[in-house]
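Minutes, methods subgroup
Present: GH (chair), OT, SY

1. OT presented the first of two proteins processed in the latest run. Sequence and structure tokens recorded below as shown on screen.
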Amino acid sequence: MPAAKPNRKAAARKRRLVETIAALTALEFGPKQRNETAAYTLLALLDLQPHAKWADAQAPLCGITPVIDFITTAYGVRYAPNTRETIRDDAVKFFVEEGLVLRNPDDPNRPTNSGNTVYQIEPTALVLLRSVGTPDWTPALRQYLASRENLKHEITRKRALARVPVTLPDGSQVALSPGGQNPLIKAIIEHFCPAFAPGGVVLYIGDTENKFVHLETAGLAALGVTLDSAAKIPDVIVHHTAKNWLLLIEAVTSVGPVDGKRRKELKDLFAGCKAGLVFVTAFENRRTMQTFISHIAWESEVWIAEAPDHMIHFNGERFLGPYPDVIAKC
């Protein structure tokens, strides 16, 4: 008799998996988003054990690692730590895109790449999924699918409110993902550029959510520059047209100043540039700068957002300009 217990547990797990895949199919997810991994991920986000009723589904805030841990404990399926990206990219990302799951509902300003990112079942979807296996499921599903586009639009609208609007020198706007270094990037564009590169053209802005959120391919090409998506591109690239300088700016809140190694990397990456290269590290405040002060490369500049009208030049031979080793050869 005792041997039957593991069999009942395995049967419950299998039954719940089949039910979940069927629910994802009814929700019109494609084959890759209704496979076993996606189903287990949804069950983790619902905190739903094999023997529990669908009506008992919950909506905890849950990161990817807790999802993996839940699947292992509740369903006996082990995912290695290096499968975090697989679960995020093959399941959670699509759930978020379709409005089934919310990302960082507790803090919309949390950076996209934050290690503290959490996910939660959207409230309307939770009500629907609690009806799986009941007479209410079919009419509730029909109503949910009919209203899903409006639901997704509302979720997108709320996300947009958390984004960081940036006004470029030409008056156009770019919206960056919330948090992280993006408020500093906003300060670079809106305060540094007018003060130290008046009339300059912003050719590139990087974002953790979209590496090429702003890219002026033609402007870069005219300077002999082509950006490879695999390259480690500086956060902001500005062409100071009046002096024909290309300002390569790193926005630093926790990592990534222009140290000696990074200066050489940038010099090599922009070796064919027809403009002189200027290397700039931007910080939010002096306290952050103090953490990195010993690493800042000579022949580079430092700008601090809390004192936007001032620049710190590392050497003193000249102020804000390219050195002979990075002046364009005519």
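2. SY then presented the second protein from the same run.
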Amino acid sequence: MSESEEANGSDADLRDQLKSMESKLRRLRDIRQQHNEAGKRNADSRNAIQKEYNKLRDEIDSKLKENKEIRNKAKAHQARRDAIQQQIRELIGQAKDSRGEKGKKSPVLELSELQSQIDKLETMLETDGSISLDKENKVLKLVKKHTNRKKELEPLVEEAMRIKIDLDNIEGSIQELKVEADSEHTAMIGFHEEADKLWETIKPLFEERDFKKAEGDRLHEAFLECRKQADEVHTQVVAMLEQVNQIRDKLKQERLEAQSWIDDHNDSVRKALKTPDQDDRLADSLTQALLAGASISLGGSETGSNANARNDGRSSRKANMRRSGAARGNRGRTKSREE
């Protein structure tokens, strides 16, 4: 087999291989595109679910905040009720000349007593015109003492817990405090019931939130899986594309070599077919030979005198023409020369 046939066979094999690889490359790109599109769909669905999840979470947070505020109101009424009941117990103990455990009073009751005493002393100073200066000074000192103690107790007792009682009518104060304690208890129960009703509307939202979160996680995992598959196919595409480019470069190199061989061959043929008038170098060499006095022969094979010329210098062709004309004239005669 000649080199040309081997080159053509190699070129054909490379083209077949290139065609097969390009076809496979297109299929891989289509598969990669399918994975990317599937991943995009999963991502879009995930983002939609995420928006719903965030909206639902905000709604739940808002309702939980509202529920907490209601519970706090219930706790405030409960704390006030408990404080009133504590005051009632201490007032009952005071009515029985009992100071309770270790003779200590609660800050709420002590603050109420101090406020009641301060009010009485100030009223006496304002209304009693017969009070002496010495007694007035003693009353002012006592008001100042109670006021200082009141300032010490106020940080320990919330504003809502400060209940004014009448120490001169302990029994009546106890009855009033019981009514107020019952009112605080009823308010507490009402707020707890309101919070319970609100909680019943929140519980289904928790279930829906959990479902959307699980669905969002599932779609996200599906998106990551599609991305992973697309990356794997992309790796194959890159590797195959490198092989395809190598084959293309090889075919291109062979085409360039073949074209170079054809160009060299055509150039040599053109040079061989050049006539003296087309070859500048040959024309120059002939000119120099003539100027040097050398003899030049162009065309034909004879180097002497013309083969068709006679010794007398006339053309033998013309002589032949005359002879053939004379022969035709003799054949036309009807009589012999002797006649």
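Chair's summary of item 2: DSSP finds six helices and no strands in the chain.
Next meeting: continue with the remaining queue.
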